[in-house]
Amino acid sequence: MNYPNKKTKEKIQITTNRSKLGMSLENDINVTNTTYINEDIAIIYKKPTPIKIVKVDYKKRSTAHIVDAYYNQPSTTDYNGIYKGKYIDFEAKECHSKTSFPFSSIHKHQILHLQRCNRHGGICFIILRMYQYQKTFLIKAEDFLDFYKGESRKSLPIDWINKYGYEIRFKFSKPVDYLEVVDKVYKLK
Amino acid sequence: MNYPNKKTKEKIQITTNRSKLGMSLENDINVTNTTYINEDIAIIYKKPTPIKIVKVDYKKRSTAHIVDAYYNQPSTTDYNGIYKGKYIDFEAKECHSKTSFPFSSIHKHQILHLQRCNRHGGICFIILRMYQYQKTFLIKAEDFLDFYKGESRKSLPIDWINKYGYEIRFKFSKPVDYLEVVDKVYKLK
User: Are residues B85 and A85, on separate chains, in Cβ contact within 8 Å?
Assistant: First the structure.
């Protein structure tokens, strides 16, 4: 790992072992969120990965050492926070297919969570990186849910993504500047 | 643990080992939040405890077994979500002193997080259970921050808590019905 990434190393360590595919998008979003916080634009964090602890070793009084644990399935999306007084909630996915994004890549309870938050007035979306096209899209939860509900398909076709997705621009300090898109799409001032 | 708690058992297991003092308030808030979700009143969750993973055993292909890990300090508050279109953010603390709530019980970066979210228009507060008085209070972040900033004290005195805190009522299905207080204090309709 290169020196400039050193600061974020600890944060992404948890997922490194789980899914190398998602690491780079996750890293990009973490860098972006840190910039948002430092520039006082928005307060948005990735939630910690849920872990079920089975056994803790208390031999050393000062530190609790976890010696037996497993990953739990998340019951919500990975990211939430506040922007311009609005509740923001999203899930990030990286897709390596050229033709479509399979619904099997997103947990059903995460979709349910987006549906609920959307209904309660939050700004909810999916950030989808189509790796083969080197493009990252913001997909509004309501557009996604419409398609997910109405179709018997098992995936989002690339044509649908190009039509309904909003491309997110890359910037050095904000590799996934999704709030720029949020401003336009949700007409925030 | 009793049968009625079985559903939430998994969620609270993580903190059970860390601090038995906080368990009952945390449990009460989890039950309340589950009721809010089931009754479609609000979507508010406790964030998972942040854990730094050192070593994972992949012997069994199906499950990643964590064999070496430590607790990380949280960088935000424990709870956030959406209610009536508003961003909600709070920290919960249980206090066993009769005279005051010591500031050493709340991390500085958690106070900073409340400050930031408050400035960005969120509804931010602390839920404080004064165990000796069998009372649970909602304390607005701005009131807390005013006192924290303005005073050279190291704690919130009980007189201040009685004056500025809003008592939260107990109900069976909502042991800490804090949104009832939020409605009144923040004049939400």
Answer: no
Pair A77, A89: CB distance under 8 Å: yes
Report the distance separating Cα B183 and Cα B189, nearest Å.
7
Q: Is residue A21 over pLDDT 80? A: no
Which residues, numbered 41 to 60 in chain B, qualify as contacts with chain A under a Cβ-Cβ cut-off of 8 Å? 42-43, 45, 47-53, 56
How close, in Å, is residue B171 to chain A by CA atoms?
24
Query: How many CB pairs (< 8 A) connect A and B?
Result: 124
Q: How far is residue A73 from each of residues A48, B52, B75, measured CA to CA in Å? A: 12, 17, 22
Best residue of A19, A120, A123, A189 to probe chain B, by most B CBs closer than 10 Å: A120
Calculate the dihedral angle through the C-alpha atoms of A106, A111, A113, A116, rounding to the nearest 10 degrees.
170
Are A77 and A110 in contact by the 8 Å Cβ rule? The answer is yes
Bridge-partner residues for B45, per DSSP?
A: B80
Cα-based distances in Å from B123 to A180, B155, B185: 24, 23, 10
For strand A86-95 and strand A123-130, is the pairing parallel, antiparallel, or unpaired? parallel
Query: In angstroms, what is the C-alpha Rg of chain A?
Result: 18
**B6 contacts: CB under 8 Å, gap ≥ 6:** none
Beta carbons of A82 and B113 less than 8 Å apart: no
d(CA A80, CA A76) in angstroms, rounded, equals 10
Q: Is A36 helix (H, G, I), strand (E, B) or coil?
A: helix
Round to whole Å and give the CA distance between A4 and A15: 19
Q: Which pLDDT score, from 0 to 100, does residue B23 have?
A: 53
Least Cα distance to A76 among B37, B126, B177, B50 occurs for B37
**Cβ neighbours of A37 (radius 10 Å):** 17
pTM above 0.80, yes or no: yes
Between A169 and B59, whose confidence is greater?
A: A169
ipTM: 0.83
